[in-house]
Design goal:
Layout (H helix, E strand, L loop, with lengths): L15 H17 L3 E2 L5 E3 H7 L5 H6 L1 E5 L7 E5 L4 H10 L9 E10 L11 E10 L4 H17 L5 E7 L3 H15 L8 H9 L10 H7 L2 H7 L6 H17 L3 E3 L11 E9 L7 E7 L3 H4 L7 E7 H7 L8 E6 L3 H13 L4 E3 L6 H11 E6 L2 H6 L2 E5 L5 E4 L7
Parallel strand pairs: 1-5, 7-8, 12-13, 12-14
Antiparallel strand pairs: 2-4, 3-4, 5-6, 6-11, 7-9, 9-10, 10-11, 14-15, 15-16
Length: 411
């Protein structure tokens, strides 16, 4: 037997109502905030992610599904199944000259992403993300709008125990000063860092702070190291931006805390970065992550454009929300006259009712047994009903049965 690949999962019928409910809430919340839906291709040029996400990230170095197409090797093109969607949305923003439209440009998306990593609860190699991206607004009001949209969506699906963790990485100058300080204080401990952190030390020292290795964490807790990590390197403008954002969150009543170790896992972030956490997930508490990426549009060939966004994994959300039961069929036609049953099912469907019938013409008791499991009502269509032109309708919850002469009399 051929099974689904490790790290992938079939989403079956009894799970679909909850998935659809999550998506319906996302569509309502985001569109009410004037985010337009955008759909980008599942695969893009590998270069897009190498340049956009960053060649020092685990995603690019270890987790991308990339392959060559185009025949002869010298003529081949490397494409990658998207590991995240921000780079793709930015590519679409540039390609379609959306910068010429009045800001802000606000988008939301839903779709599958792909990363080759160790499967675990709520995390698969093929997974689905919901996210938003906003372009054109440099003011902290955009940061507040994006965080508010995420919080309102999460509340709409029943997550009320939320806290936003925030940090400011500052502008490019702030980040460079912070990087240099991190490198300087960690230099004596370089040999003790894990292999990944040794590579990050050269390419992107801030990513070291995102390391979960226990030995690295011990080094971060050393007083002389911790003092540098927790120091505030952001300039006056960046500090004003961050403090104004906190004022907006206070005004909105959004619970938050600052986490100086929060750097996020992608290279393109600057200034505001954030995660939203839910206690329902225990140690794996983050349900949403995002931040500013003011330099990414220019880095990928567009005009300089401030931008901010977030993404959240739907599989993880599914594990913690209340499940929605699958709706029962409105009517099940019980009849041993398959032609008449088929015709009646069509009439009901044309009237926007859900309807099914027994395709095998089984005995009445078997058909009624099936109807009681899947439908709200059974329409009994025997010889008397067919010959005399009426319908017998049975309420499968109460057992009450009535005769009607016209389908318009149906509930």
């Amino acid at each position: 037997m051929i099974k689904a690949q490790r790290g992938t999962k079939d989403i079956l019928g009894d799970e679909i109502p909850t998935w659809q409910w999550i998506l319906d809430n996302a569509k309502r919340i985001f569109q009410n905030a004037c985010f337009q839906e955008i759909k980008t291709p599942i695969f893009e040029a590998t270069e897009l992610f190498a340049r956009g996400v960053g060649d020092s990230t685990d995603i690019v170095n270890k987790e991308m599904y990339s392959f060559c197409v185009g025949g002869a090797l010298k003529d081949s093109t490397s494409i990658t199944l998207r590991p995240e969607n921000t780079a793709g949305v930015v590519r679409a923003f540039i390609e379609h000259n959306l910068n010429r439209q009045s800001p802000p440009q606000k988008f939301w998306y839903f779709g599958p992403m792909f990363r080759y990593e160790r499967p675990q609860a709520g995390r698969q190699r093929q997974f689905h993300q919901l996210g938003v991206e906003m372009f054109g607004i440099k003011e902290p009001s955009a940061d507040a709008e994006v965080i508010l949209s995420a919080v309102e969506f999460l509340k709409s699906i029943g997550l009320g125990d939320l806290e936003v963790e925030l940090n400011s990485l500052g502008c490019n100058k702030c980040k460079n000063d912070y990087r240099n300080s991190i490198k300087e204080v960690l230099k004596p401990y370089l040999d003790e860092l894990c292999d990944d952190c040794k590579m990050r030390y050269e390419k992107n020292p801030l990513r070291i702070l995102d390391c979960k290795n226990e030995e690295c964490q011990k080094i971060f807790e050393l007083p002389e190291v911790k003092k540098v990590i927790l120091a505030d390197y952001i300039c006056g403008d960046c500090r004003e931006h961050f403090e104004t954002l906190l004022e907006y969150l206070d005004e909105l009543g959004i619970k938050y805390s600052r986490n100086k170790l929060l750097v996020r896992g992608l290279d393109y972030y600057n200034r505001t970065v954030f995660e939203i956490k839910s206690q329902n997930l225990g140690s794996q508490s983050a349900v949403c992550g995002g931040g500013r990426y003011d330099g990414l549009v220019e880095m990928l060939g567009g005009v300089p454009t401030p931008a901010i966004g977030f993404a959240m994994g739907v599989e993880r959300l599914y594990t913690i929300v209340n499940k929605i039961e699958q709706n029962k069929t409105d009517y099940f036609v019980v009849s041993q006259n398959t032609k008449e049953a088929l015709k009646l099912a069509r009439k009901l469907r044309e009237d926007n009712k859900t309807a099914d019938f027994d395709m095998q013409g089984r005995k009445w008791v078997k058909q009624l047994e099936k109807a009681s499991k899947v439908a709200k009502y059974a329409i009994l269509l025997g010889e008397d009903e067919i010959n005399q032109g009426f319908y017998s309708v049975k309420n499968l919850s109460t057992g009450e049965q009535v005769k009607i002469n016209n389908l318009k009399e149906l509930c």
